[in-house]
Amino acid sequence: MSKSLKQAAQHPEANPWYRAVYVGDEPVGFVMLSWKPPAGPYTGRHFIWRLLIDKHHQGRGIGRETLTQVAALVREDGATELLTSYDPGDGEPWPFYQKFGFEPTGEIDDGEIVLRIVFPAQ
Ligand SMILES: CC(C)(COP(=O)(O)OP(=O)(O)OC[C@H]1O[C@@H](n2cnc3c(N)ncnc32)[C@H](O)[C@@H]1OP(=O)(O)O)[C@@H](O)C(=O)NCCC(=O)NCCS
């Protein structure tokens, strides 16, 4: 998380937006988006830059609930899609994102596979 906050400070142009994830009073994770950055490849779009659930709390549906809440927030902001990317390899989070409805866009960004979910019209 400190690495993410440092990156956020180093990249103000990415318009970082971040929140801690709590279950009750307990901090269990962290999520950071690039929220409609004014420049760069994701200009004006919402991109999940980091999503981390503490390993003692993984596999309990908290990651999915976090995505659900983030998706609701970006839709309230008028978004029709949400993007992310992942580093392919052992333990990759692709099955997690696929179950939620993300699909590859076909782009590779800095070695990472870019995914997106398109929201149905409201
Ligand atoms: C990936 C991550 C965010 C998922 O959060 P989580 O709270 O463990 O996931 P959930 O419990 O909500 O899982 C939802 C579904 O995805 C599946 N899933 C979650 N992570 C998975 C993984 N790495 N591989 C395969 N399936 C996975 C779960 O089994 C569950 O499936 P089900 O609905 O069939 O039971 C979390 O494991 C994590 O922080 N991992 C390390 C960092 C990381 O990879 N972050 C994402 C890229 S930056």
Describe the secondary-structure layout.
Elements: H1 2-10, E1 16-23, E2 26-35, E3 46-53, H2 62-76, E4 81-86, H3 94-100, E5 103-109, E6 112-118
Parallel strand pairs: 3-4
Antiparallel strand pairs: 1-2, 2-3, 4-6, 5-6
Coenzyme A binds at residues 50-53, 58-64, 86, 91, 93, 95-96, 99.
Protein name: GNAT family N-acetyltransferase
InterPro entries: Acyl_CoA_acyltransferase, GNAT_dom
Pfam families: Acetyltransf_1 (PF00583)
- In CATH terms, the superfamily is Gcn5-related N-acetyltransferase (GNAT)
What number is the mean pLDDT?
96
How many discrete structural domains? 1
Distance between the amino and carboxyl termini: 34 Å
Largest pleated sheet: 6 strands, mixed
Q: Helix count, per DSSP?
A: 3
Bound molecules: coenzyme A
Organism: Streptomyces albidocamelliae
InterPro entries: Acyl_CoA_acyltransferase, GNAT_dom
Protein name: GNAT family N-acetyltransferase
Pfam family, one: Acetyltransf_1
Q: What can you see in these coordinates?
A:
With 122 residues, the chain is α+β, with helices and mostly antiparallel strands. The protein has one domain: Aminopeptidase. The chain is built from three helices and six strands. It has a six-stranded mixed beta sheet with strand order 1-2-3-4-6-5, sandwiched between helices. Strand 3, helix 2 and strand 4 form a beta-alpha-beta unit. 23% of the residues are buried. The mean pLDDT is 96. The site of coenzyme A has 17 residues, from strand 3, helix 2 and helix 3. Coenzyme A (COA) binds next to strand 3, helix 2 and helix 3.
